[in-house]
Amino acid sequence: MDEPLSPDASAVLTALLDGPGPVLAALRAQVPYVRVTGRCGCGCVTVDLEVDRGAVAAAPGHDRPVVEAGYADDEYGAGVLLFTAEGYVSGLEIYSASGDPVTEWPDAAGLEIERRPGFERGVVSGGG
């Protein structure tokens, strides 16, 4: 599988990466080069992602998941996690507190985003 990110997933990814700091800036620069390489087997919209590493630099070292967000007012009690591998965007996971698979990306405007400590200053721990 090698296909573009859907417009709804792209909107969620863009919203998750909005903010200050060198890690988020480097990951934002990767968005035009992101491709979907796999999907979750449960039927949800979680996607495995790959970035054209020849086209854009890796992000500085950082914690994983990079960003965590929830949707306060949706039917699933859904949340989203953004993962990286070696400084590149690698996965956009959606989960449901209800246990039912989330089969379409909720509106990115409804995200309540929780950033990892230090990202706004570029001071982060862990691997990337």
Topology, element by element:
Elements: E1 3-4, H1 7-16, H2 22-30, E2 34-39, E3 47-51, E4 67-71, E5 78-85, E6 88-96, E7 111-115
Antiparallel strand pairs: 1-2, 2-3, 3-6, 4-5, 4-7, 5-6
H/I helix tally: 2
Helix content: 10-25%
Uncertain runs are: 120-128
* Integer-rounded radius of gyration: 14 Å
Describe this structure in words.
- There is one protein chain.
- The model is unreliable at 120-128 (pLDDT under 50).
- The protein is globular and about 40 Å long.
- It has one domain.
- The protein is 15% helix and 31% strand.
- Strand 5 and strand 6 form a beta hairpin.
- It starts with a strand and ends in a 13-residue tail after the last strand.
- It has helices at 7-16, 22-30; strands at residues 3-4, 34-39, 47-51, 67-71, 78-85, 88-96, 111-115.
- It has a seven-stranded antiparallel β-sheet, covered by helices on one side.
What's a concise summary of this model?
The protein has one domain (3-53, 61-115). It is built from two helices and seven strands, in the order βααββββββ. It has helices spanning 7-16, 22-30; strands spanning 3-4, 34-39, 47-51, 67-71, 78-85, 88-96, 111-115.
Sum up the structure in keywords.
31% strand; globular; 128 residues; alpha+beta
